Fold each of these.
Amino acid sequence: MACTLLLGALGAGASRAFAGAVEGQVVLTPSDLAIHSTSVPNPYVGQVSASARTAVAAAAVDTIYGVAWIADLPPDPAPPPASARMDQLGQRFVPRILAIVAGQTVEFHNSDNVFHNIFSYSPPKKFDLGRYPKGKSRSVTFVKAGAVQVYCDIHSDMRADIVVAPTRRFALIGPGGRFRIENVDAGVHTVKLWLPSGERTTTADVPKHGAVVISSLMP
């Protein structure tokens, strides 16, 4: 399905010398929008009990639909940020999409009163955390950049995506499809976007100050 990216004029005021921003809007497809659907009945609701209601409330404010990042920059020399957290709540992963930086650790916490067994077979990071109960956490460090699909070996309906950006020059794509990547060095850069409907790639010529324009992006 087509995914169109529209970029407009950017204001001045970058925080670094000769650095601008990349700002855009992606047209979200039905498959992109469907990831936050709560219309599918939860077959384990009797076991998960109150956490299912909490998960539905959490899903209502979990409004990340994708990630955009500058793909051609060298790795950040600074230490990675503190650990991020992905909860298991009401037989859902919260947040549904998590963006981190290469080298960052993710804590997988279990808030359900049932066991979960979190795993991934994705090439950037393969892991299997084994079974663990409510109140426990297990952590994974993601060294390589790329998209990692996360599942539960016990509950086949559970799915999350962790997008590991190569640097901190990334931005979350919100419900309107909009994003803004700050402090991008001047020059021609490769811009990548990850969405549930697929990955998109284009280039952006970022000036020392001011605007960048990208006409469209097709799958």
Amino acid sequence: MTLLDPKYTAVVPLPDPIKMPLAYPVARHDAQWAAFLDTWIELKQRDGTIDALYRHWILGKDAVVRQPRWSIVRDVLHWVK
């Protein structure tokens, strides 16, 4: 939300950021699904995906500012800025 709307902000408590555990609900007797999720989360932690997502969505790092799309109203008629 912070990247989409400037009135929101992500707050990171410094000097020691808090990391929360990740949880997915799993049906009580679905051991295969639980094992799959455990493996998937471990793989994503090992390959750096979770850290990269945290840096992007929570810390706002590596964000690219998008240019507005071309518009007849704005770029040709100059009715809005």
Amino acid sequence: MPSFLDLPARTAKPRRAGITHVMDRGLSPLALESLLVTAGEHIDMIKLGWGTAYVSGAVGDKVAICRDAGVAVCPGGTLLEIAVHQNRLDRYVEWLHELGIDHVEVSNGSLPLTRARKGELNAELAREFTVIAEVGSKTGEAVANDWCEEMLGDLAAGAAMVIAEGRESGTVGLFDASGEVHGELVDAILRAVGQETVIFEAPQRQQQAWLLRRVGPNVNLGNIGTEDVIALESLRRGLRYDTLDLLPAT
């Protein structure tokens, strides 16, 4: 990258703050390699969305490509929920090891799963994987106290980080049906668990810009589309109108 402009300071990989967590909806290995050539230094984790890893070819090749690029890979939490619901957790774990995946998402937003059982899964899986625990239902109202309590419980059980639900649409959880951010929920989460422990799902540009202005250029953002990685990095750097106010004072 050039260096002649004064831009907001960015953390470097491997990092805990400033993470960009990308949603892979089924990229081919060739498309993934192309993405990483262009934007690999800005990507920290790729989530194989929903159950796409189960129906995609060459997943092991994609994991190897990401490993060589210093990018973590994590299957979507829905796949784990289905495996637990069907009593196939052991086979799911074996399959992840076969693929070389060392991150796993634990969620309870799609199928019935009590907090107690979720905590047990966090603890069990944390012995073999880096656990990212997602909090928030894909339907229904977000209650700040409930989210914060669940996040703290997940971390205490062994999760390395938590994800605040926004879904790929950006219209639930952290956001209302029109995509507007629930600011009081964001603030409560930051007070409860801290900036470096939470990834905020924010698929829409205006949501990303809001969080960058509220938290700073090194807020952790998730569910970023593969086509939006470079655009997000320009937002982080104050290189778009939406975040010009992040530029250092001159």
Amino acid sequence: MIPLELGALEGLGDLHARDDQVTGVRIDSRLVVPGDLFVAVGRGVEFQDDALARGAVATLVPADPFGALAAIGRAVRERSEARVVAITGSMGKTSTKDILAALCSPHLRTVASEANYNNELGVPLTLCRIEADTEVCIVELAMRGFGQIAELCEIAQPHIGAITNVGPVHLELVDSIEGVVRAKGELIAALPEGGAAVVPADFPVTRTDIEVTRVGAPDAHVADNRTELDGVSFNFTARHQAQNAAVALAVLDALSLPRPQRVDVDFARWRGEERELSGGGILINDSYNANPISMRAALEYLTERAEGRRRVAILGDMAELGRTGPDFHREVGAAAAALGVDEVLAVGESARLYLEAGVTGRWVANVHEALRSLDDVVRPGDAVLVKASRAVGLEAIADELSRVATA
């Protein structure tokens, strides 16, 4: 982190310091290293002594944790000449960030958000990792309602904004697809004059003082366990990742960086991870999150990767769909049936609706019941997809399948 004088923290809360500047910011005392500022969020106030023992030079108990972190992140951002890229979208934000970071890192000193650090805590923490020599910082912006992206942009002050796509996500907060467009559009509105935007082909942009690149359906080719897109070879085969890669390449162009012939991407956990199962089976662990569009894409990928194997989909609830939720769950079930999925294990109250479309399967109330059902659902040699919204916790299913496979 660019060293920050403690004077910049005055008025943010109860500050105790052993030095006059900090070189890092943490909200988890277990991660503190010498030179850090420990910001006590929630029960963090109970761990100030632990942070000091690990080398923290200051602790801050803020009156407003989100406001304090925003002020600290903004202070670091304003001291940096790095170009900031902000990525949002209904799906694919984290994967697009991962792809872009892999493309940028060989050319520029790059900071990218860890995992899905994309909210009022994660964005400032990402900005606080900017060093004096950082040249590009890639942040991911969440959207849980109107105004959130605008607030995050006030902190990050992006030069380039990318919207991966627009779909039926968080509808209980923004009501409609039009509401999603409006909320995502806050990123475009926040860009400075002369900035650059990468948006879906049909996304409305009225600004004429920024450069706008529109990304349509990519012409990708899959062979030898890699995907080739516009002359660049990527280490994945999922077709929905090709769309994310197309957005990342457009941002790379906006940064005036060269395109490589080949790039290998380290994706964040639980996003299409593949592992071998017993009897020649395969596990696709996409348990981090789910919405109607990403569900269908994952089911299509399961069908492609099965290659003659029996196809099993362990699908949990899709959250935050509002009044349209039941219809979307039925549509996903219909997609599974149309794609020829052999068996669905539906997990969660809303997931029961997957089975109304005629697909073969069974329903359980929660992940604990699902774990007890695995022996009856999954056979050696199966191709298995695990996918749900984060709150369902289906990563436990993937972990158990992996444990059995390696036992």
